[in-house]
Amino acid sequence: MAAKKVLVTEKVADAGLEALRDRGLEVDVRLDMTPEELIATIPDYDALVIRSATKVSRDVIEAAEKLRVIGRAGVVVDSVDLDAATERGIIVCNAPTSNLVSAAEHTMALMLACARNIAQANASMHEGKWERNRFVGTELYEKTLAIFGLGRIGGLVAERAKAFGMKLIGYDPYCSPGRAEQLGVTLYDDVEAILPLADFVTVHLPKTKETIGMFGPDQFARMKDGVILINTARAGIYNVDSLADFLAAGKIGAVGLDVFQDEPCAESPLHEFENAILTPHLSASTVEAQRRAGVQTAEYVAAGLDGSIVPTALNMAPLPPEVMDAVGPYVPACQMMGSILAQMDGEIPQYLKLTAAGSLSTVDLSILVAGTLKGLLSYKRVAMVTPVNAESMAKRHGIKVETLSHADAEGYASAVSIVADGTEIACTLADEAHGARLVSLLGYKLDIAPAGQSLVFEYEDAPGRVGVIGTILGEQGINITTMQICTKPDEQRALVYVNVEGAVDDTVLAELREGVSGLANLWYIRL
Ligand SMILES: NC(=O)C1=CN([C@@H]2O[C@H](COP(=O)(O)OP(=O)(O)OC[C@H]3O[C@@H](n4cnc5c(N)ncnc54)[C@H](O)[C@@H]3O)[C@@H](O)[C@H]2O)C=CC1
Ligand SMILES: O=C(O)CCC(=O)C(=O)O
């Protein structure tokens, strides 16, 4: 099988690219593509790896015929049309812990640069000057730092600022008093109350309706004279025009910004101020963060292409490890059963019932339903189904899905049975190494691991039928590798499940239909 192809559109650490190649994926790095070039290129690729600059619009997603995974080598995924990806069953995942320390350190770097005029002094020295009196700074020690957003990065900033001897105050309605206490932050439940207290303000907030424009003229006016403001989160949280006004008036002492409304940012009202310390979205640009982001993203992209669970998928709920341990090995088994059902019935069922038994009886079965639908609908290419869009695909195709659980797996440790419009199939998994075994089909009890090609016969039970099947297949050069015969004595019916090797074509099938007397059904299954 040809290797799956990954398109990388931004600079990702070599370790990340290597990690993709180590997993057998073909990797193409194409930097600085225009949106039109991306739309023209994407149809060839199974996965896309981006950072913050690549816009993955609905147009890109609709052009992406084969795309299964979009991996963001970083935290925030604000450049991908998540709804469009979800509708197409494309997993969107990120590397949410890769750059937290780097972002916290960059925040400290900007605070120190603002407090000690580092950038201005450096520029002055490069002009051959020696201006010691011009660049008198302030210490961080014993100053009050207000942290807005005490999540992962806000918390790391608190720990670092504490080591500088700063007094920490904070605002985050979702932060527990216990966490604030542990971080040494005095929590306020009112933004207005905190504003006059801070010498330094830093925001570590997501960009949301509530946080866009959270700080404008009214808030800046209430702050201490000479306050220093930092933003390494997202642009828009501070109103930039009004920042410029308050810098011009000398009310704000300095600002340190890493994020901008339109990136790359070539024009800003802040450019005229030497005490506006600006970096081009560098918080995550460290060797360590990029290595982590690249390697983590490679792992999740490969998992998504493999059909495995992607723990950081943003458009599906990740399952906890204990649930995954129990149901994970059954996902390919359910996909296989879905595919067999599709090949036996030929029609898309209107009703699907999945029953999990034994050790599976207490776990979330949604991923097994997704696996079954994938097998069912992907066969004949009715639809590309992934765990992301399984539910919406079932609805779109009018399939009513029901799940049941039983403690009793009839002698097995665990088993899953599926009924699609009355056609029944069940399997168990003795252990992962040996794969799934079918234990029931159409009510016949059997025990066989389906192979790549199988023939399934149902006929009126009578002596000699198996011999005829063997003879016809033998004459056509088709080798039987495994065979199971099972009967329903009350109905005088038998089912034979034969795994075969060799070319099964219409002639072979016609001969079998003609030669096996009493034949009720013959299905040719390919997995
Ligand atoms: N410049 C860069 O390269 C990077 C920027 N970031 C940005 O840093 C920011 C913070 O990231 P994390 O700490 O990982 O996020 P997080 O989700 O761990 O923390 C965000 C915190 O904000 C709080 N919050 C949400 N809405 C709030 C509101 N209206 N008022 C007050 N608090 C509110 C939440 O309760 C949470 O504690 C994000 O905007 C992210 O985009 C992250 C990594 C790198
Ligand atoms: O990839 C980058 O450098 C941007 C990092 C960032 O902003 C994020 O991870 O949210």
From TrEMBL:
Keywords: Amino-acid biosynthesis, NAD, Oxidoreductase, Serine biosynthesis. Its EC number is 1.1.1.95. It is an enzyme of class 1 (oxidoreductase). Residues 454-527 form the ACT domain. Pathway: Amino-acid biosynthesis; L-serine biosynthesis; L-serine from 3-phospho-D-glycerate: step 1/3. InterPro entries: ACT-like_dom_sf, ACT_dom, ASB_dom_sf, D-isomer_2_OHA_DH_cat_dom, D-isomer_DH_CS, D-isomer_DH_CS1, D-isomer_DH_NAD-bd, NAD(P)-bd_dom_sf. Belongs to the D-isomer specific 2-hydroxyacid dehydrogenase family. It comes from the Bacteria. This is D-3-phosphoglycerate dehydrogenase. It holds the Pfam family PGDH_inter. The keyword Transcription does not apply. Catalyzes the reversible oxidation of 3-phospho-D-glycerate to 3-phosphonooxypyruvate, the first step of the phosphorylated L-serine biosynthesis pathway. Also catalyzes the reversible oxidation of 2-hydroxyglutarate to 2-oxoglutarate. The keyword 4Fe-4S does not apply. The lineage of its organism: Bacteria, Bacillati, Actinomycetota, Coriobacteriia, Eggerthellales. GO terms for molecular function: NAD binding; phosphoglycerate dehydrogenase activity. It catalyses: (R)-2-hydroxyglutarate + NAD(+) = 2-oxoglutarate + NADH + H(+); (2R)-3-phosphoglycerate + NAD(+) = 3-phosphooxypyruvate + NADH + H(+). CDD domains: PGDH_4.
